Amino acid sequence: MKEKYMERLIGKYCKIVMKEPGEQRASVVTGILEDVDYNDGFILVDSSQGLGCIRIDTVVAIKPGNHRNIQKHTIKDDEEALVGIGTLIIFISMVLVAAIAASIIVQTAETLQQRAYSVGKQTIREVSSGMKIIDYTGYTNEAKTKMEYIAMTVKLRAGSYDIDLRETLLYIALDNLTVLNHSTNAGLNAAEVNASGIFHTLYMSNLTATVYGCIATHDADSSVVDNYGMSTDDTVILMINLSACFPTTSGLEAGGEFSGRLVPEVGTAGTFLIEAPNTYEHRVVQL
User: Fold this and answer.
1) Fewer CB in a 10 Å sphere around the end CB: N or C, the chain?
2) Beta-ladder partners of 216
């Protein structure tokens, strides 16, 4: 080919038909014609396989083409990039969703743990706390026909939490149900008990059908006297006016009985059953 024709095609996309000596069939190479070296007899072609040299004497024909294939290839590369970005967005979304779900699970687990701890603590307190009645003593009228007062010695159960006597109710059941609570005007310590005994203390007149009294016989920290709170080592005597609680009979007759419960603000209640002897030989009666 003449030089003037070859130079016109430099920089253009061409279809190059060439035939090697001794071969029966021609082959085709497509690409951009980069340069023509007449001295060495080669042309430089930038094809899809890269930059290469073709001998001029093997070239049969060169036909200019267009860049559609390259443009299509570029568009294809862009489409693959878009797919990659979409996949990345989906991946990031999945990570965010997983993180949010994990956060919710952790918060729920923490809430459940705190709730379980609180319920467990309350359950332990309910089971371990409570009051127990260790002794009963009655006091009759002068004729020894009816029991007018009763003294109940009370302690807390082993391992019990402190209990507020002002929140402790006393239930007594005979012909009806009587509910008594503690009054701040009906509490003494052992040193204030009258010399004639606990049934002759100064505040006995404060005991009514709805109020029971309290004498702290063991109160090392003065919690019962000062704050009406019983601790594990405290011992108190609860005073009940039976003549006020049982107005029909003005007290508990000989051979009679009644039941009751001592219910603290939290924990196990102390239950009791009082059975009076058939006769009262003394005014102080051990039950």
Assistant:
1) N
2) 189, 236
